[in-house]
Amino acid sequence: MAPGTRWHATLIAGCDGFHGICRDAIPARLQTVWETSYPYAWLGILAGVPPSTDELIYCHHPAGFALHSLRSPQLSRLYLQVPPDEEIAAWPDDRIWAELQRRFALPGWELKEGPVLEKGIITMRSFVSSPMRYGRLFLAGDAAHIVPPTGAKGLNWRWPTLPCWPAPWSACWPEAAPSLPMPTPIRASTGSGGPRISPGG
Ligand SMILES: Cc1cc2nc3c(=O)[nH]c(=O)nc-3n(C[C@H](O)[C@H](O)[C@H](O)COP(=O)(O)OP(=O)(O)OC[C@H]3O[C@@H](n4cnc5c(N)ncnc54)[C@H](O)[C@@H]3O)c2cc1C
Questions:
Q1: Which CATH fold topology does 39-124 show?
Q2: How far does residue 142's CA lie from ligand 1's centre (Å)?
Q3: Is residue 168 lining ligand 1, measured as CB closer than 6 Å?
Q4: Would the CB of 201 count as within 6 Å of ligand 1?
Q5: Long-range contacts from 88-91, C-beta under 8 angstroms, 24+ separation
Q6: I need a labelling partner for 60 at 20 to 30 A (CA). Which of 14, 48, 83, 106 fits?
Q7: Distance, CA 175 to ligand 1 centroid (Å)?
Q8: Distance from Cα 20 to the centre of ligand 1, integer Å
């Protein structure tokens, strides 16, 4: 698209993530934001090793939480709870695996290790911006809300957003209503009957 191109749209899906431009198109005087930061972070790695389990493992350990999740038959994703101001430079791969082994230690079970393909520290926060609709603009996903990364939170959280919009798409666009995937009400909270996708994390 050439710079300066102007598009006219019947509807705008504001699904451009937390740092996108759509949420800021809603006048600040109309916006209310709820935000909470949590006093810990997650150090996450993507490891080139088959998952050590066929289900998620949420680990409760005196040293902090740990999570083993699955990405593919050859990829695992693992997390360690760390202080919120932790620096990733303080965590060479050997230290990460040693801490994962310590927290996940269970007689008769083995945590498989492999090359660390990615690593980073994710701060934990919750963020919700309201309204999620402004005229023809509909916010969805991280543009409207972020929650800490519990299991598969992205899709499970976003999908119930849709019926929360004050008017469904069909009300704005009646000629297209028969083809719009909106008719089934989904209760607007996770864990209460909406679709759930796993694995997450
Ligand atoms: C480390 C990590 C692990 C995660 N694991 C999981 C998981 O296991 N399961 C899960 O469900 N969720 C997970 N999440 C959360 C999930 O990634 C997000 O909730 C989800 O990606 C949000 O999707 P989105 O489409 O709203 O925003 P995004 O994924 O941020 O996508 C927004 C898109 O809009 C584009 N964009 C931005 N601005 C503009 C612009 N001006 N013009 C055009 N395009 C623009 C961006 O380039 C981007 O492609 C994880 C997040 C992190 C950080």
A1: D-Amino Acid Oxidase; Chain A, domain 2 (3.30.9)
A2: 7
A3: no
A4: yes
A5: 88/43, 88/119, 88/120, 88/121, 91/43, 91/119
A6: 48
A7: 31
A8: 10
**CA pair distance 61, 38, nearest whole angstrom:** 18
Read off the pLDDT of residues 66-106 as tens digits, 9 standing for 90 and up: 999 999 999 999 999 999 999 999 999 999 999 999 999 99
Question: For the chain, what are the domain ranges?
Answer: 6-31+131-164+179-199, 39-124
pLDDT tens, residue by residue, 136-159: 888 988 899 887 776 445 555 555
Q: Which of 7, 15, 16, 157 to mutate to test the pocket of ligand 1 (most atoms within 8 A of CB)?
A: 16
- Cα dihedral sign, 109-115-121-127: negative
130 alpha carbon – ligand 1 mean position (Å) = 19
Find the 131 Cα to ligand 1 centroid distance in Å: 20
**What is the reported pLDDT for 6?**
85
Pocket lining: 125 vs ligand 1, CB cutoff 6 Å: no
